[in-house]
Amino acid sequence: MSLVEVCSLDDVPVGSGRAFTIHGHRIAVFRVAEREVYVLDDLCSHDEASLSEGELDTTELCVECPMHGSLFELRTGKPRTLPAFAPVATYRCEIRDDRIFVEFLSKNLTNC
After folding, report:
1. Would you say domain 2-107 falls under CATH 3.30.1120.10?
2. Entry pTM
């Protein structure tokens, strides 16, 4: 496993999400509080809409797919509502010196 630097905290304002491409793999970084960040695959498992463009609920810790309204849990990537029924991948992340790092498995990096 390796940690990859994605961005600074300032690149993702509190209460929002933003997409990044790391080693050819598109991820969504969601910042729900000053130093609380979650990272998911950016594409909805139902119809490949960009989750980073969806509405973020910082209280319920979920994001709504902007295309068909499925809600995905930020902690687990599991959908709470239809039409999505398959989860999206989640990634462990760390904040160091106001920089966001995401952990990728070696296989994730070579398959991208």
Report:
1. no
2. 0.91
